[in-house]
Each structure stands twice: as structure tokens, then as C-alpha cells.
Amino acid sequence: MKPDQEWLKTTLESISDAVILTDIQGNIRLLSQKAELLTGWKNEEALHKPLTEVFQLLNAATNEELGGSMLNVLETGKKVEFTQNAVLLSKSGEKRPVRSKAKPVKDEDKHIQGIVLVFKELVRKNKKLGKAEFLSFHDPLTGLYNRRFFEEEFKRLNTERNLPISLALIDIDYLDDIKKDLGHAEGNLIIKKVAEIIKQECRVDDIIARISESEFMILLPKTNSKQADILVNRINDLVDKEKLDALNLPLSSGCEPTTKKENEIAFVYKEAAEKTSSLKNTAKNKPTNVLIEIIMETLYHKNDMEEKESAQVSEFCAEIGQTLELSEKNIENLEMIGLIRNIGKVSLDSRILHKPDKLTESEMAEMKRHPELGHEILNTMNEYAHLSDYVLAHHERWDGKGYPKGLKGEEIPLEARIVAIADAYNAMISSRPYRKALDVETAAEEILKNAGTQFDPHLAKVFVEKVLGKEHIK
């Protein structure tokens, strides 16, 4: 730095406002320390760059670029001032409300030699206004940018010096089904987790936005197709590794580069979306199987005993079906019902599922809702809707004192009567926080003791004598 520039820079540091100097072409000559702080650019790296690249001034409400107006100073010789509704977009993507004034720098002969730009960050006096400004270009759930801001940034960054620009589209598969079956709170947690992973993997200069309920877009300046694919694959791998709190949730993704600044964002988005759509149609992403897996994995995460016990109940159900010489299809159905009979518990409070003591009356009433909740979940899936009535009835009793409908005798579907016996027996031989497991002899005796009241008497006898091989038990 020349001696006069050193003196000038030292002088500028004594000024409380940020200062930028340009030459006659509007290129940076000097940034004060305060200007470095607010713009995110170091003086050395900003040197000779266009003013509009370093000082990116936007309309706070519309994201319209305002920085270009500063260059009018070079032609008109008149000052340009923005006192409100303007934000400075820093190199890192942070937005700050600022007040700025640009004036011409003239020599002794009154010839314009450049611009002196003085600006200052505004202290927010109105917190509600600050929040409104933030929400105008951010997604309120994730804190990422919204679609409107993203599209404006594409226009701003779509210049020759940033080519190639790649657009990456990431879509959370079956999010609507997840929200419908597990609740909006669970769905929102998934959205926020995916957003965190994307932010973690992206570079500072990348622009990330949530553009719809399940879709994210990433704008990648100076990034070719291969580099974009590497990034998206990293995101997919990390999501798969995290399993989103035990949810094995697939993502669909697609990337599209552009090497022509004439290309509109709609065109690039369409190309990326078509690649994303093709991934959704692969065999890997069969909706019903994936959704059942997602929900059951979530239930196993909430209740760690459930996975082992469901497998045991499923096995008992199949053995009863085989003993009764049911068809292969019916036995397959029994196996599946045994596995998913408690799927409705995924919607229950974890505190009830994990309570070490016996449930209170109100808690038991809540627990008894799980057959109806499971029925609702399965009815949304074509592949499993035919099993929903069996899940609904698996806590009915032979004497009509069960729930939720109080069905009696053979009003209860055969499959539900079989599951009721397998489920009750397995519960008795399993430990609970409030009691020890019963031995198999005692549990078998309980099944026979409750035959004709809780259980179908014929099925109870078949189970104990033929499946368990306890013919000596009276």
C-alpha cells in the first residue's frame, strides 16, 4: 500500500462509519476496517472488484438490487442516499439494515475520480419490524431462505464470472404421509433435521432455500455437475446415517448445471426436478413398504421392547395359522398383523409407553386408543388397508368386554382372535418395569383359565395344546 493510501486508511479507521473508496470505473480502491466487518470482505481480496459485488445493497421488502444506483454518482456527480428499507447482503449471506450515502470524489479541477461510500448499520428500534423483514426472505420453520429470495439471488449470481452455476433439488419423500400418520410436529422435526444437514454440508457462498413443504434448493456458484453430485451424495449419505431419529427416510434429489447466463431459473429448476422425479419412480422408493418401515422404526425407537415382542407375536400367530391349516395367504396376513398390531402406539406419548408404574385411569384410556389409531394409519395405505379391521379388533374379548367396539364371540374376526391370544401370551412371558415375566407353564394356564371369557375357547386350546405342546395343563 502506498504511503498516501496508508495515511488515508489510518484516517478512515478513526471514523465510526464504514467507508469504501472506488476508482473512476467503480472498482474498489479501499475498504475501511468497519467496512470489512460489515461486508465480510477483506480489503486485499476486495481490491479492484466492482463495487456492486462487494457492497450488495438490497430492498428489504422486495430484494431488488439497489447497489447499481451508487454507480450513477460517476455519471451525474450527484449523491445517492438510502436512509431506510435497505439491507446489506454480506459475503456470508447475512443481511444487515444499513443507511448509506455515496458521493463523488473530485480532483482540483472538479473532475470525478471515483466514489466515496459511507454507510452505517442501523440499530433496530422496532423488533417487530426486524422480524417482519427477516420473515420476508426466510422460511420461518428452518431459518433458511425462502423461494422469493432464492429466485432473486439466482438472477443476481447468474453472471459470467459465476458460471457454471448448479442447482440442486432435494425432496423429502412421503412427507405428507408422515405428517398425516405421525403428526405435524414429527414431520416438522424431520424438515428441520434435513435443513441442518444441508447447511452443515454446504459452503458459505452457497444459497440454500426451502421452496415448498418438502423441497429444498441449493444454488451453487462456480460448481459443475460432478461437484454438485458429490455434494448431494454427501447429504444423502449423512441423512441415511443419521436416520433422522430412527426414521429410515429416503430423499429424492437431482442436480442441473447451467453454463449460460441467459437460462432462466424456471428452466434450470425444471431440469433438476425431472431428474428428481425419475428417482422417485425407482423400485427403491416403493411408498407403502417404505412408510410402514418408517412408522415401525419410529415406534421401535420410542419403545425398545416393541421390536422383539412384535417378532415373537408374529411367529406365534403364524404357528396358530399353520396348526389350523389356513391358507398360505392367511398365514402371511397373520404374520404381518402380529408385527404391526401396535402401529397406532406411534402416536401415543412416549411417557405413557415408558412409564415404570401401572398406568392411571386416564393414561389407560389413552393407551386403549392405539387400535383405532392403527386402523386409521393402515386405512391410508392401499397395500395394508385389508389388515386394518384386524388391528382394530385385536383387543376385543370373547365375552364382549373388550375394546374399542365391544364385539363378542365370532363377531370378532378370526385373525384378531388369533392375535389376541398370541399377544396376551407373549406379554405374560415378557418382563415389565412393574412386574416380572411369568414362566411358560403359568402363562399357558392363564390362557386356558380365560378361555371363553377373554379368548376364543377353541383357539385357546389349540394354542396351548398344539402350538405350545402343553397337553397336560388342565
UniProtKB/TrEMBL annotation:
NCBIfam families tied to this protein: GGDEF (TIGR00254), sensory_box (TIGR00229)
Any single Pfam family the record assigns to this protein: PAS
Record CDD domains: GGDEF, HDc, PAS
Chain ranges of the GGDEF domain: 163-292
Protein name (Swiss-Prot/TrEMBL): Diguanylate cyclase
Gene Ontology terms describing biological process: regulation of DNA-templated transcription
PAS domain span: 4-77
Residue span, HD-GYP domain: 284-474
Transmembrane segments: none
PROSITE patterns in the cross-refs: GGDEF (PS50887), HD_GYP (PS51832), PAS (PS50112)
Organism: Dehalobacter restrictus
